[in-house]
Amino acid sequence: MKEIERIIENSLVDFLKKIKKNKWVGRENEAINFFAFSNLIKRFNKSNVILRDPAQIGIEVAVPQLRGKGKKEVRKDLVIWNKPGMTNWNKCGQPIVIMEWKFRAFPKQRKKSSSYDIHWLKSFSRKNFIGYSVNIDIVKNETKIVKVCEGEDEDITKQIKGTGLIKDERRT
Known about the structure:
Blueprint: H1 2-21, H2 28-40, E1 57-64, E2 73-81, E3 95-104, H3 115-124, E4 130-137, E5 142-149, E6 152-155
Parallel strand pairs: 3-4
Antiparallel strand pairs: 1-2, 2-3, 4-5, 5-6
């Protein structure tokens, strides 16, 4: 799983640098697509044991809902499956990565909280799974990235350096 973490986190660093350098703006779904197709997909290759085929990526796809919730499935922003072409409807398919995004690029948009996403990812979490809550606010020049593994969350924002989109907390 360390290899997947390295790939996802390096892809996020490159994405953050790219949107900063190009002064990119868009909505959340456009940011997710831009991330997936401009940064993440480049790191998939046949020699990688786990991330070998871009067809493992799903955007806005259904995954199993937590037990005790109303629906049987719920849609998630970006999902990486254990096999190419998998969906929630394939009983042998399991998400190995789920990324939930909050993206704010326009002043009129309200600021979004990631607390529900982090709670959901922690509850869904199990062995051989990584969750990410990605919250990017272009308007306020703030980014917060939380990684979830085996029910534990870790704020990795400080580890994602050099993007210019992460405020130095000592100056705030």
